[in-house]
Amino acid sequence: MADLMPSGKVTAKIFPHPLNAWYAVAWDHEVTGKALMSRTVAGRPMALYRTRDGRPVALADACWHRLAPLSMGKLVGDDEVQCPYHGLRYNSAGRCTAMPAQETVNPSAMVPSYPTVERYRYVWVWPGDSTVADPDLIPDMHQMDHPEWAGDGLTIHAPCNYQLILDNLMDLTHEEFVHGSSIGQEELSESEFRTRLEHDGSVTVERWMLDVEPPPFWRKNIRDRFPDFEGRVDRWQIIHYYAPSTICIDVGVAPAGTGAPEGDRSHGVNGYVMNTITPETDRTSHYFWAFMRNYRLDSQLITTQLRESVRNVFAEDEAMLAAQQAAIDANPDHEFYSLNIDAGGMWVRRILDRMLEAEDRAPVRSAARSAVGSAP
Amino acid sequence: MTTSAQPDWSTGRVLATAPVAADVQRITIQRPARGRAAPGSHLDVRVPVGDTTDVRSYSIVESDDDGSQLTISVLRVPQSRGGSAFMHTLVPGDELPVTQPLQNFPLSVAAPRHVLLAGGIGITAVAAMAQALRRAGADYTLVYAGRSRERMAYLDELAGLHGDRLVVHIDAEQTPLDVAELVGSIGRHPLSGATELYMCGPIRLMDAVRRAWESAALPLVNLRYETFGSSGWFQPEEFVVTIPQRAVEATVRSDETMLEALTRAGIDLMYDCRKGECGLCLLDVDAVDGALDHRDVFLSTTQKADGRTISTCVSRVVAREGSPNGPRVSLTLP
User: Fold this and answer.
1) Domain with CATH 3.40.50.80 in chain B
2) Residue numbers in A near B109 (CB within 8 A)
3) Is the domain covering B239-332 a CATH 3.30.230.30 domain?
4) Contact (CB<8Å) B108/A132
5) Which residues form the Rieske domain (chain A) (predicted)?
6) Fewer Cβ neighbours under 10 Å: the N or C end of chain B?
7) Cβ contact (<8 Å) for A93 and B111?
8) What is the pLDDT of residue A231?
C-alpha cells in the first residue's frame, strides 16, 4: 500500500507559501516611472518602479550597504534607483553602479532584482530562484484584458494567511451564510457539486442550482441585459484554481430551462470573478480581485456598479477572514477538521504542499492531528 | 536560492573524488541541505596549514536540488600554503569543516546578454552560471581559455551541454584568447551597453580584460568578477612592514597578510571584508623598498599607480629586481 500523506500536514493552519511561483504584486497602473513604491511579496519586501522604457522592475527593498529601504529613495537616469540614505545607486538588474566617496564600486554590491512580467493588467513577480522563472507558468486570467470582456476590480489587504482566502473561494457554500443579502441563497448548501483535479493540474469545483429564484445581485445583472426578465433561473458557479493562488470563477444565471447546463448560455448573463492572492506575510495577504462580464461591454455604469457591489460582498468575506485568523491565533491548541464541502480547498492544499516539498519548505506537521486517536 | 554572507560551519563528508584534468581534483562533499547552491557561490573549507588551520574558498561547480551534495574542483598549485595539496589527499569518507554556500559572485539573469569568461581553473566559478543561463533560456556565450587541453577541466562535458555557445581557446593549439578581440566584439554588439561579462581566471587575464573594457568605454558595472584576494601580479614573498609612529616592525610571512602581521604586533586596525573590497583597512604608504603588489578592487587604477595607499588585508610588497634589500614598506596610521 502506498504511503498516505499525513493529514496533519495538509491541514496546517498557517500554510507556508511557495517561493518559486509568479505572484501579482500590483495592478499595472500602480507601478510607475515617477516614484518608487514598496510592497512585500512572500515575506520579501520589494521596491517597485518602471524604467524609462516602461519595463516594471522589482528590486529587494533594502540597500546592500546598511539595508535602508530603497523604496524611500528616488529614480535616477534611465533605469536606476538611488538609496535615500547614502546615495548608492542600483540599475534594474540590481547591480550597484555608484558608491559615495570612492573611485570604484565594490564588485560584490548588488540587490536581488526579482523577475517581473506585466500581464492581465497586473505586474507579476517571482520571489524564488530567478533561474527557473518561466513566464508560461503565469496563470490564465485572459478575461482581464480580452476585448470580449469588460470590468474592473480592487485590492483587499487581508489580515489572514493566504490559504484561508483560497479555502473561502474554493467552497462557495459560505455565500448562504456570509452573503445572505446579495448572492446567498439556501439552494447553495442544498445543491450538489463536483470537484475534480484536471489533467493540467488545475482544480475545478462545479455547482449548478437549477430552477431557483435569482438573488438580488443576479436579478439586477440579468435585467441589465434583458430588462423584461421575470421568473426563475438556472445558476452556475464553476471554480477554476491555478497554482499557487489564482482562482477564476465562472458565474452566471440564465432563465430556467433555456439550456445553460447543456452549454447554451445565450439567454443569460455570464461573469468571471477573477481572484489572485499574493501572500504578504504568514498572516497577511494582498487579495487582487476583479469582476469581468461579457455583455454590455461599453457601459462604464455597469462596470462601476458591479465593482462596487462585489466590493461590498467581499467586505463581508474580509471581516470573516480577519475574525477566523484571530480565532486561529487565539486557539493554538485547536486543530482544523474537514467537511465534505472542503474537497476543493483540500486539493489546493495538496498541490501547494507538493510545491513546498519541491522547495523543501513543507508545512510543519501538526503534532495533535498526527498522533493516533488524540482528538481532543 | 541560498545566498548567505555569514559562514555557518558544519562537518562535510567527502562522497567522491576524481581527477578531471592535470593537477585538478573533483571533490563532492555532503553537508546539511540548505537549498540549491546559487550559481557563482563558493564553499569555505578549513584546511590544515603547517601546525595551524586556514580557510580556503572553492567555487561550487555543481549542486543537487537541495544543496546537500556540492561539487568543487581544486587545482594543486606549486606555491600552495598547504591548502590545495591537502585537498588533493582527500578520499571518500574523510570529513572536514565546511560552510554553507557563500555568495560573492552572484549571477543576474535579468541582464539581456551574458558573456562568461573562464581562464583555466576559473571554469569552476562560471560553469554553474552557464548551466543556469541555459536553463533560463538566456542569451549567453561561454568563453573558456587554457594552456592545454589536458589542463582544462570539464571541457568535453561543457561542449556537450552548451554546443555552439561554448568558445574554446587553447594556447598549445595556437588558438589563444585575444582579449582585445573578445572585448571588441562585445562593444560592437547592439546590446553592448547591457551585456554583462563574468570572468574568473588568473589576475593577468582579468587585468587585461579590465583595461580593454575601460578603453572600450563599456559600463564598468557590467564587468563582473570575484576576488578571493589570493592572486596577485607576483608570487607572495615575505616582507617587512613598519609603523614608525608606533615603533612597530613586523615580518609578513608569505602565507599571511599585512593585516594579520600588524594585528599580531599589537596594532588595532579597522577592517571588514578581508577581500580587498570595502576599503576600511587602507593605510597610507610612507616609503617602500620594492614594489607594491595591489590585490584589492577598492582602489582605482589611478590610485594604485599613485601608490599612496594600500589595502592591508590583501595587498603585498615584493622585492624589486636587482635590489640588494629585502622588500619593505613603511605605513602611517590615520
Assistant:
1) 113-225
2) 115, 130-131, 133
3) no
4) no
5) 22-125
6) C
7) yes
8) 96
Q: Which residues of B touch A101 (CB under 8 A)?
A: none
Subunit contact A97:B302, Cβ cutoff 8 A: no
Place of cell 534607483: A81
Adjacent-strand bridge partners of B73: B26
In chain A, residues with a C-beta closer than 8 Å to the C-beta of B298 are: 102, 104, 106
Grid-cell match 608606533, residue found: B246
Determine, for residues A110 and B39 on separate chains, whether the beta-carbon distance falls below 8 Å: no
Contact between chains at B136 and A102 (C-beta distance less than 8 A) = no
Residue A63 is given by DSSP the state -
Q: What is the ipTM of this complex?
A: 0.76
Residues of chain B with CATH 2.40.30.10: 10-103
Q: In chain B, where does the domain assigned CATH 3.10.20.30 lie?
A: 239-332
Contacts A96 to B, Cβ<8 Å: 221
Burial of A52 (0-12, 13-18, 19+ CB in 10 A): exposed
Q: Which residue in B has a C-alpha nearest to residue A95's C-alpha?
A: B221
B5, pLDDT greater than 60: no
Other CB atoms within 10 Å distance of the CB of residue B104: 21
Percent helix, strand, coil in chain B, to 5, is 25, 35, 40
Q: How confident is the model at residue B80 (pLDDT cuts 50, 70, 90)?
A: low
Judge contact between B98 and B31, C-beta under 8 A: yes
Give the integer Cα–Cα distance in Å for B19 and B26. Answer: 6
The residues near A217 (Cβ < 8 Å, ≥ 6 apart) are A182, A183, A309, A313
Report pLDDT for A367. Answer: 45
Contacts of B297 in chain A (CB under 8 A): 104, 106-107
End-to-end Cα distance, chain A: 29
User: Can you list the alpha helix ranges (DSSP code H) found in B189-264?
Assistant: 203-215, 258-264
Q: List the grid coordinates of A20.
A: 518559486
Only one residue has cell 556565450, namely: B141
Query: Distance (Å) from the C-alpha of residue B74 to the closest C-alpha of chain A?
Result: 23
| Chain A residues with CB-CB distance to B1 below 8 A | 128-130
What is the distance between the alpha carbons of residues A321 and A238, in angstroms, rounded to a whole number? 22
Positive or negative, the CA dihedral A25, A26, A32, A35 is negative
Q: What are the structural domains, with CATH classification, of chain A?
A: 30-115 (2.102.10.10), 141-357 (3.90.380.10)
Among B33, B135, B222, the residue with its CB nearest the CB of A131 is B135
pLDDT at A5: 64
Q: Which amino acid is at B270?
A: M
> How does pLDDT run along chain A (376 residues), one tens digit per residue?
456 766 656 778 899 999 999 999 999 999 999 999 999 999 999 999 999 999 999 999 999 999 999 999 999 999 999 999 999 999 999 999 999 999 999 888 999 999 999 999 999 999 998 888 889 999 999 999 999 999 999 999 999 999 999 999 999 889 888 998 888 788 887 888 999 999 999 999 999 999 999 999 999 999 999 999 999 999 999 999 999 999 999 999 999 999 999 999 999 999 999 999 999 999 999 999 999 999 999 999 999 999 999 999 999 999 999 999 999 999 999 999 999 999 999 999 999 999 998 887 776 654 444 433 333 3
Q: The domain B10-103: what is its CATH number?
A: 2.40.30.10
Q: Which fold has domain B113-225?
A: Rossmann fold (3.40.50)
Angle between helices B155-162 and B123-135 (to 10 degrees): 20
Q: Which of A104, A131, A359 faces B136 most closely, judged by CB atoms?
A: A131
Q: How many alpha carbons lie under 13 Å from residue A19 in its C-beta half-sphere?
A: 18
Which residues, in sequence order, are bridge partners of residue A48? Answer: A37, A58
